[in-house]
Amino acid sequence: MLELRLVQGSLLKKVLESVKDLVTDANFDCSATGFSLQAMDSSHVALVALLLRSEGFEHYRCDRNLSMGMNLNNMSKMLKCAGNDDIITIKADDGSDTVTFMFESPTQDKIADFEMKLMDIDSEHLGIPEAEYHAIVRMPSAEFARICKDLSSIGDTVVISVTKEGVKFSTRGDIGTANIVCRQNTSVDKPEESTIIEMNEPVSLTFALRYMNSFTKATPLANSVTISLSSELPVVVEYKIAEMGYIRFYLAPKIEDDEEGMQAEAQPPPEKKAKKEPKAEAEAKSEPDD
Prior knowledge:
Keywords: DNA replication, DNA-binding, Nucleus. Its main location: nucleus. This is DNA sliding clamp PCNA. It comes from Persea americana (Avocado). With 290 residues, the protein is an alpha+beta fold. The protein has two domains: 2-117, Proliferating Cell Nuclear Antigen; 135-251, Proliferating Cell Nuclear Antigen (Box). It is built from six helices and 18 strands. Strands 6-2-3-4-18-17-16-10-14 form a nine-stranded antiparallel β-sheet. It is elongated, with a radius of gyration of 20 Å. The termini are far apart. The model is unreliable at 258-290 (pLDDT under 50).
């Protein structure tokens, strides 16, 4: 038996909006510790990892580990029927092929329930090893979204470079070039407006802007975004979800002088290596096999 009651129902709606264009079908994994999702996009270039911890729910009951396969577009359609202030309850019986969403208005004068068929999705849960990053940038999420949107009107890729001067976002296209530099800024009055850069060594990597723009759909979930960069690893774009969890997007860098429009991985993302190697070895190994 699974029963999850989330007072901030709008959080779940925002989570779905941020991932449904990237991932079509995915398994939601429920355990005693939380409600999670991990899935790759159809081109196997980007990976999304979501965690909503059990303590963030008003009521959380999960008698045994459960994996629910859902079409995210269909789930999003159902959640759109909930008001932004509604309390959302998710229920599923052991062995059932359906999941029920219940929406209660704050005054509890209106209760709606929607039943959705579950899917049998064959997916492997990938281990993502912890890693040390050369540079970590924390900046306002709305600022990052604006930069990605602006640059995509000029080019297809963005070069993110972190030096002691700051973090630079660059692109080039048929009409010209663009560079946007954000310097460290610790605004004491409004911490959410701060730009904080932790750098162990300079790093410069190229990414497809269409993926970055897709990631920024999670902007409504958090005031700030954390971008973790390392030359041997995929970038991690992380949005904290209130006090209860996070949504992380992983994207492999493009190799310079790559064919236009082609996405090439500088090395297999860590989750691919982790399937074949023990965690300690996957972390220690930094050179690609190919």
